[in-house]
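Hi R.,

Here are the chain sequences for the assembly we discussed:
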Amino acid sequence: MQETIHILQKEFDNLNPEQKRAALHTTGPALVLAGAGSGKTKVVAVRIGCLIHQGVASHQILGLTFTNKAANEMKERVHKLVGENVVVSTFHSLGAKILREAIHYLGYAKDFSIYDEDDVEKLLRALSKELFGQDAKVDLKRARSLISQAKNGLPGDSEEDLKKLYELYRKKMKEFNAVDFDDLLFLPVELFREVPDALAYYQTRWPYILVDEYQDTNQTQYEFVRLLAGSSQNLFVVGDPDQSIYSWRGASIRNILNFENDYPGAKLIYLEQNYRSTCTILNASNAVIEKNSNRYEKSLWSSGEEGEKIQIFQAMSEREEAAFVARKIEKLKREGQSLTSFVVFYRTNFQSRVFEDELVAKQIPYTIVGGTSFYQRREIKDILSYLRLVQSPTDHVAFLRIVNLPKRGLGEQFISKVAQAASENQIPIGSIDTLPFPLTPRQKEGWSCFRGAINKLHEIKATNSLANLVRAAIHETNYLVFIDQEEETKSERRENLAELIVKAEEWSDTHEGGQLSQFLEEIALVTSTDVLNPNEERLSLMTAHNSKGLEFDTVFLVGLEEDLFPHINSKKSEELIEEERRLFYVGLTRAKKQLYLSFASLRHIYGRLMPMRQSRFLQEIPHEYKKVCR
DNA sequence: TTTGCACGGGTTTTT
DNA sequence: CCCGTGCAAA
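And here is the predicted structure of the full complex:
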């Protein structure tokens, strides 16, 4: 105990006056405007430490972040400071947790499934057919965005057909006992509004709330936090309007700008000293972000050293660009720098391909952060769908996905008859066994094979480990035979399945008595940066969006071309361009020591070779900070 | 009724 | 370049 107080005291003494003011905040609302690299994570941790030191029980403190990585980091830092565990969770995991406890008030059951983007899209496709017939011409993308916007408190499309689809979607999701990502926040807000006792319970449970990256909260998250903070108003939020990069997902910096109105008497704290980057990098970044007209004035300063100039590289093609980066990294690595001190940022996921090829050729180990994650791979989702159906027999989308997979001669017509029979007899689609209509011999065979597998899995779930359940889902269904038929040459999918078994084993080892439902939930809520492991000697590659909250000695920001970064879709308005500029700013400010910016004159887009021009953002960096590199 | 093949259309960013 | 969809054979 004495020792931890000592550590806390020491950390506190190291803070600058403004940081101390933040760390000492106890009750009531506070807004910390924290510029890039201004030490906000540290400040938040020390502040939690101080609260605990002053007698607040650790379980009364709730931290909210956007990624699991940020959550774990904060948890660990607090633990190091005061040796206690506080609840730090992502918005979405907290929503899931609350729903697991209280969703019955809203007419769902506790073992609900969580649908990802892919599941939602499949369901919408099916529902639009059901509503409007085969050749329905509903724009599914628009429908999807209407649904999301409606749940995030934004006005959406008002077309009749889309509204109908939205209504049906909500009805079916409830019937299937499934929720989507937006529901993980939307439904808790609904719960808080409709069940005052539930709200009161959670308000008492967490009287102290902290929110990280507040500039990226959307309307529903805003409501969620506002309701939870309740009358005590012990709400401490941290954010930076210049790093707001999720407006396309409904995030609004209004939440930051209106904070003082929403929470009267809020304490305002500005953290403007940057401890991360060299002056060159910081000044260049400041110059860029100042081009935004819609902006709250703020200027970051640093007492650090000047540092090296920013290196600009012009490549002939994307191939040459990748080769340049790989070569540089190889060289710097030989000079003794760790691969974990570098990073490659790009605007869109498809750009990672060329880099992968180049890194494989040069035998540089790497990790792609984000993109299609492990759990989104087809074979993994197939097997997980078996588990989902066993866990929740009402999970219609899981049923649809696997009933004829591997191929069992159970086609579209057959499946819709099963669905009809299930709903007429009020039996969950994953439980219906004997069918009240005639089957062809082939269907009879296929159906009994499918039911046999499902029944077997239920048995194994009751008696065996999670890893054995995963094994059984793969073997009882002859899934391996099926992939061998599909593509004889590639072993990648087999390896992924083996990896899934390993993950299930590891999970059982670290979660004693853990249930299948928990495993599935964790998988649904993994965030892309979770794969980052600083102990592994690997280079990371990721989109600029994924870079938020991270820092590296040397940053390679690539593909700086007009129509790519800024992206062509953002040319519709100046606001969108300004968001691209903020994204560029986020990328720049991740760098501690060195920054390499590159672009290609020719690039393959949709497989076609296109001439490219360098990004306007490059020109926005003043000359004195740049240097052409070859 | 299911399955296999050819075609055309579409790519931001993500919990 | 990858996917889902639309059309013709089994």
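The CA atoms of residues 349 and 371 of chain A lie 6 Å apart. The two ends of chain A are 56 Å apart (CA to CA).

Let me know if anything looks off.

Best,
T.
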